């Protein structure tokens, strides 16, 4: 008997003897066997090499079969066993074993077949890969790297539940992945079991940036030059200039290099030239005043020194190359003590690279003086004539307000002005006379009252004397 409970290799003669014994037994009229076989069975686990198939129980080990008239064909099951038989899912599956002797007496035994698999027994494909960003884009559009045909079994005897396995990535197809490393998770499954496989996708940028330089620049008014280059890249790029925009350039031709570099370290370069063609220092000097006036008591004056702060840049972006020096000549000399006269100022300005000579004319003259007249009082007319004494080395016009000539309506004093000038003094005089008169009157009255009081006192004293005499 083999592991399936079947009789194998039984000699033909033994089988023949058993059959003859059964025939004689029947012929002799003996009672047939009515006692079923005595069987026992135990739970089993599927074999590792056929993890979801049942091969049957081993006689004497996993089951027992006792009967006086056993069926040579052995036991049977309510399931189909073998590599192509029924599929057993993970877990415990109940199975019934049947034992029938040659008189059709049947006995059954219930046991469980256990499939211990918890994960689909397949090999994970290599999911690690390096991809490039989509052309002209900063991202990669995700596509799975494996199909069902790429999946192999880790146990060859395993049979898939269902037609085949499915491969399902957790990342949606078409998802945009930035430059960098991304986890790639794939679920491989049949209708019962599954397995999760992981890998890493490295997205790289392989497109270098593109930089276009501006045209060559020629500048004649300043030495500070601004410029910019056009840069394009699928993921963005930084730009460096040498020299940087806004730098101070030396006279002549200077080459400028531009480098565009993206996050992947890819770069592109270009260059152009900047030419500074300034011929002289772009500054000018504007004197605070072109005419200096001296008082009659002053014979000379000191012209203030001219410094860098007194200069005006003709282009506000220009930067001096070094310390600025200013030298001034007055009619060809450095003497800044000026007397009356005309002076040509020659101003030499230098910043160690460029220089400029400025010329300006300064006039020193005497301040005009005006001698006024004394105040005028007039009681007979309202048209007043007057004049002031004026002296100046070149002559000076004189204006009056009001004018000294004309009639009473335009240039003279008006009637109202004249009336005020007469009435107010008269009123003051009258007020003073009134106060003085009142004071004199009050003084006389007071004196008379004192006299009367004294006379009364004397009369009383006389009367008293007379009374005493009596």
Number of domains: 4
Overall geometric form: elongated
CATH class of the largest domain: Mainly Beta
CATH structural architecture of the largest domain: Sandwich
By CATH, the topology of the largest domain is: Immunoglobulin-like
Overall SS class: alpha+beta
* Biggest pleated-sheet summary: 4 strands, mixed
Q: Which stretches of 5+ consecutive residues score pLDDT under 50?
A: 1-11, 407-413, 454-470
Helicity, in percent?
10-25%
Order of strands across the main sheet: 2-6-5-4
- Kindly report how far apart the N and C termini lie: 205 Å
Number of strands: 32
Kindly state the mean pLDDT as a whole number? 84
Radius of gyration: 67 Å
* Total helical elements: 2
- Strand percentage lies at 25-35%
Protein name: HYR domain-containing protein
Domain HYR: 32-117, 196-278
Signal peptide: 1-29
Organism: Strongylocentrotus purpuratus (Purple sea urchin)
How would you describe the overall organization of this protein?
The chain is 15% helix and 34% strand. The longest helix is centred in the C-terminal third of the chain and has 55 residues, at 415-469. A hairpin with a 4-residue loop joins β21 (252-262) and β22 (267-276). The chain is of the alpha+beta class. The strands form twelve sheets. A four-stranded mixed sheet has the order 2-6-5-4, with no helix packed on it. A four-stranded mixed sheet has the order 8-14-13-11, with no helix packed on it. It is elongated and about 190 Å long. It is built from two helices and 32 strands. The protein has four domains: 12-115, Sandwich (Immunoglobulin-like); 122-204, Immunoglobulin-like, CATH 2.60.40; 210-276, Immunoglobulin-like (Sandwich), CATH 2.60.40; 283-366, Immunoglobulin-like (Sandwich). The chain has helices at 12-27, 415-469; strands spanning 38-41, 44-45, 63-66, 76-77, 91-100, 106-115, 122-123, 129-132, 139-141, 152-153, 166-169, 176-178, 180-189, 194-204, 210-212, 217-219, 224-225, 230-232, 237-242, 247-248, 252-262, 267-276, 283-285, 291-294, 300-302, 311-313, 325-330, 337-339, 341-350, 355-366, 369-371, 389-391.
């Amino acid at each position: 008997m083999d592991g399936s409970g079947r009789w194998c290799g039984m000699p033909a003669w033994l089988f023949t003897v058993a059959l003859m014994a059964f025939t004689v037994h029947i012929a002799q009229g003996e009672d047939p066997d009515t006692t079923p076989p005595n069987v026992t069975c135990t739970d089993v686990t599927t074999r590792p090499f056929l993890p979801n198939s049942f091969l049957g129980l081993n006689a004497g080990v996993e089951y027992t079969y006792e009967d006086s008239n056993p069926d040579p064909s052995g036991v049977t099951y309510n399931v189909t066993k073998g590599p192509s038989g029924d599929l057993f899912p993970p877990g415990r599956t109940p199975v019934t074993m049947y034992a029938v002797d040659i008189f059709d007496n049947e006995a059954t035994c219930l046991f469980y077949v256990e499939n211990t698999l918890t994960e689909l027994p397949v090999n994970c494909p290599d999911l690690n890969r390096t991809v490039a960003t989509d052309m002209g884009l900063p991202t990669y559009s995700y596509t799975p790297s494996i199909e069902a045909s790429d999946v192999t079994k880790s146990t060859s005897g395993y049979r898939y539940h269902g037609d085949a396995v499915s491969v399902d990535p957790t990342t949606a197809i078409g998802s945009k992945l930035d430059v960098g490393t991304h986890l790639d998770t794939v679920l491989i499954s049949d209708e019962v079991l599954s397995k999760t496989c992981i890998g890493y996708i490295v997205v790289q940028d392989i497109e270098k940036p593109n930089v276009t330089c501006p045209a060559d620049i020629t500048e004649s008014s300043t030495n500070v030059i601004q410029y910019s280059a056009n840069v394009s890249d699928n993921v963005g790029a930084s730009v460096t200039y040498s020299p940087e925009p806004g730098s101070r350039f030396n006279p002549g031709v200077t080459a400028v290099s531009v480098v565009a570099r993206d996050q992947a370290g890819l770069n592109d370069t270009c260059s152009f030239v900047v030419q500074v063609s300034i011929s002289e220092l772009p500054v000018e000097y504007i004197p605070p005043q072109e005419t200096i006036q001296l008082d009659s008591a002053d014979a000379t004056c000191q012209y203030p020194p001219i410094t860098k702060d007194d200069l005006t840049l003709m282009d506000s972006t220009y930067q001096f190359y070094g310390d600025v020096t200013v030298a001034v000549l007055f009619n060809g000399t450095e003497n800044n003590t000026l007397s009356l006269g005309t002076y040509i100022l020659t101003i030499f300005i230098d910043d160690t690279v460029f220089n400029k000579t400025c010329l300006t004319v300064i006039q020193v003259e005497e301040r005009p003086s005006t001698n006024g007249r004394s105040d005028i009082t007039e009681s007979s007319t309202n048209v007043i004539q007057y004049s002031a004494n004026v002296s100046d080395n070149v002559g000076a016009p004189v204006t009056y307000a009001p004018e000294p000539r004309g009639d009473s309506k335009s240039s003279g004093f008006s009637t109202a002005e004249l009336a005020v000038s007469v009435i107010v003094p008269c009123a003051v005089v009258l007020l003073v006379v009134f106060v003085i008169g009142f004071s004199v009157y009050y003084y006389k009255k007071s004196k008379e009252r004192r006299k009367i009081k004294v006379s009364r006192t004397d009369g009383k004293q006389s009367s008293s004397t007379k009374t005493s005499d009596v």
